[in-house]
Design goal:
Layout lengths: L1 E4 L5 H14 L8 H9 L3 E8 L2 E13 L2 E11 L8 H15 L6 E2 L6 H9 L16
Parallel strand pairs: 4-5
Antiparallel strand pairs: 1-2, 2-3, 3-4
C-alpha cells in the first residue's frame, strides 16, 4: 500500500475518481481533470490517494482554514473502493492524514460522517475521534 499527496493529474487519477466518487455519493458530479488540477494547485486543500497493486483504491482531502481562532483542518471526501474495504485501507489513509497534519503543526482535526456509514464511524472512533457537541447546518444555495 502506497499513500501520497497528489501532485499531478494523470488519466489513471481521473479514472480512479470516476470510480470512487460515486461510491461516496451518487448525487455528486464527477470531478473533471480541470477541477482536480485546481484542487491540487490550491493552497487550502491537499488531496491524498492510496494505491494498492498500482491501482488507486482510496482518496481523502484535507481542507485547511485560517480563521481568527487559529488554523483548522477538516478531513473531507474519504472514500475507499468497495472492492478493498475491510482490509485496513481507510485506517492507513486516516493515520497518514493525521501524521501529515501533526507534521504541519496542526493541533486537531475535524470531520463529519453520515450516521449510515457505520464502519467509517466506528473506524473514526477507534482512531480517537469523538463526537463534538455542536450542530452542523446546511443550506442549499441553488
Amino acid at each position: 500500500m502506497n499513500i501520497y499527496k497528489l501532485e499531478e493529474i494523470t488519466p489513471n487519477v481521473i479514472q480512479a475518481f470516476q470510480k470512487l466518487i460515486p461510491q461516496l455519493s451518487e448525487s455528486c458530479n464527477l470531478p473533471t481533470d480541470k477541477y482536480l488540477i485546481e484542487i491540487i494547485n490550491s493552497e487550502c486543500t491537499d488531496l491524498f490517494v492510496v494505491e494498492d497493486k498500482n491501482e488507486i483504491v482510496g482518496t481523502l482531502s484535507l481542507v485547511f482554514n485560517k480563521i481568527p481562532t487559529g488554523n483548522k483542518v477538516w478531513i473531507e471526501d474519504v472514500v475507499v473502493d468497495e472492492a478493498v474495504r475491510g482490509r485496513g485501507v481507510g485506517k492507513e489513509l486516516i493515520l497518514y492524514a493525521m501524521k501529515y497534519a501533526k507534521d504541519n503543526n496542526l493541533k486537531s482535526m475535524n470531520l463529519t460522517s453520515s450516521p449510515e456509514r457505520e464502519a467509517a464511524n466506528m473506524l473514526y472512533q477507534k482512531l480517537g475521534f469523538f463526537k463534538r457537541k455542536t450542530n452542523v447546518y446546511k443550506i442549499k444555495l441553488s
